[in-house]
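To: structure subgroup
Subject: Chain for Friday's discussion

All,

I'm putting the inputs and outputs inline so they're searchable in the archive.
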Amino acid sequence: MKKQYKIENISGSNLYKIEVYLTKEIGKENFVLNRETNVLTINFLDENKINEDSKRIENYIQDIDEDIELTEREIKPITRKVLILENLDCANCAMKVERLAKRELEHEFIVVDFASTKFIIETSNEDVINNLVEKVQDIATSVDSNIIVKEPSKGKPKDREFKIDTKRKKEFIIGVSIFLVGFIAKTIMNLLDFNNGFSIFNINIAIKDIVVYVTYVPGYFFLGKDVLYGAYKNISKGRVFDEKFLMSLATIVALLIKYYDEAILVMVFYKLGELCQQYAVNYSRKSIASLIDIQPQKANVIVNGELVEANPEEVIVGDELLIKTGEKVPLDGEVISGEAELDVSALTGESLEKFVVVGDKVLSGSICKSGMLKVKVEKGYEDSMVSKILDMVENAGSLKSKSENFISKFARYYTPIVVICSLLIAIFLPFVNPKYSLDWAGYKESIRVALIFLVVSCPCALVISIPLGFFGGIGGASKEGILIKGSNYLEALNDLKIVVLDKTGTLTEGKFVLKRIVTLSHMPKDQVLYYAAHAESTSTHPIAKSIVEAYKGVIDSTNVISLESPNNRGIHVRVNDKEVIIGRKEFLEQLGINLTKDVKKLTNLCIAIDGVIAGYFVFRDRVKSNAKTTIKELKELGVNSVCMLTGDNEEIAREVATKTGIDMYCSEMSPLDKVEKLVELKKKLKPNEKIAFIGDGVNDTPVLSAADVGIAMGALGSDAAIEVADIVLMTDELNKIPEAIRIAKKTRKIVIENIVLALVIKLSVLIVAPLGILSINQFLIYEAIFADVGVTLIAILNSLRAMKVDKK
């Protein structure tokens, strides 16, 4: 059951308080708080208590601040839609499309992911969804007439190639060719000191000027017509602080004051830079896409004994596939014939091969290195492992980092400020700098300086480098079997100060072995094990599995009936008409089992049969060999405290903590106890510091959701882990955690390098230009082009470094 509220008159800090409260009360997965629209949607799990729970939450929110207005809204179904923006080559344009779309379209969520050229929207407005392509096309055209909005193809990601706009390239070549003819002719005339001309209506016209008019004007038209058209469209919509308008203004003014060469060369270098930027961005996108190119291209389906080649999306559950040596497993399934060595490195990042036989599960994206398999499909394409991995990585850009959001806001103010400065310089520079005379010659120079400010005012280098850097880092991490759901989580890894780990399966191998059964009644051990194994056959916990494995007989699940349980801290079932309870002493007492003084001292897992304590279990679990070195690495990477939360007893917890170097541990904790402890630890952090929880992604769902960064380990084949966690490690190797932090730190370093480089060069040009160093002023217009286009190219190429993962 869901309820939705509109919250008005609330500050950002109070929104954060609501998020913390709801995370603790109902879990992060059971509510959505849209900070853009201040709409809160809550999913109530218990239908019988919905009024009581909703009233409690409403009272809490209204008690935060008396000015807050809380109104319940009718819930409409929300539709998510993804479109492709072809020819989106400018990060600043992507930012503008996103900003305009948020202004013009009713939405719950909108993002334009520049790295993948995706427009993503979530909305409850049917009209917006039904006419989305047309509406987004209108918005995109107003920003850049070359952008084409399309529905995503159902083909493979690599079917959608990132192409260069050939029309733009042809116009550039024609424009430059015409300009070069005039430039060369004018240069020869200057060398020959050819100043001849003629007179018409008492107006002296130099042949040199005619050459300039005949060649430069059409050359300028071919080079700049899309820029001029874009500027006109933007002016008509009241958007003057746009790079197309600024470039048009700079070049037209240069032409009017007879800086012909500068005017054309500014447009030449701008267009050349635009094309180079397009090549560089596309190269970056292809490189990133190649890192996650794990999608199978075909499936060999067995139909009436014959092989039929099909698209994996067309295969249905129950179909039988033949997978030969060298082919990728197209869909998740079970081996029904054959045996083979599978390379799962594309999923896990590890080069170890997995040997599979009849009855084993295989995952899409694996490569058959040797042998042949017949596989029965268990999941359709959209539910297969490879599809989920690709979807997670490709949509990671929809969750933006703080750096991206900051630069987007910065760019909105940077451009207008620089443009206003250029206007002031054009007017007042001759008054404040004696090097510029108070005549037309002096004003021509001050206008030249103003033009430099206009050229440098575009924030592209700043805006483009951050999404590409983060997307490259996410792509590189995915190659290592580390799946990061958004650049916000990648950035958060840089600020981790507390890391909280589960014990079972995280610090330990999670492969429990039942060491012994201690009986406390007349019932023999084999009978106690019989009832215990049947009861635990309903659980997926590693301890339950070890009890089932210790029982060598056949388990008949039809003899097991679940009974009401006060919580999820134990098992309460009926086996062959006998009531069986398995859990720790507190769980048994809640169900009315009388415990002796000796039993009350136990911290082991106990079993009661028909209301009487029958015995308890002793288990053994080994600490992972690299656990101690991983914790040491975490501290070297800036983590202040490493904490372990476990449901096991004090003795086992202390032993594991001592062996691994854990700073703090808490034992005998339920999943809800873990959430409360994590919230308590979070309160000790400073505002920008983060806390991460690392667990198996199944039994730790509540605490994974409550952490700033939830990391699920050993998620290969686990749908639950992929749904819940913010970062998914496809194997259970602890050393992937410091590796993920190193990738995050490298990515942030690259992003900072790009920002510093862009700001230093732009500011250097802006500071030097007004000083009036006339000996270099004639070159500053070209340096301004470099500060705009050149720095952008350098930032793009530097961002590619994020894709390469440096092994320690």
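Points worth raising on Friday:
The CA atoms of residues 603 and 651 lie 9 Å apart.
DSSP finds 27 helices and 30 strands in the chain.

D.
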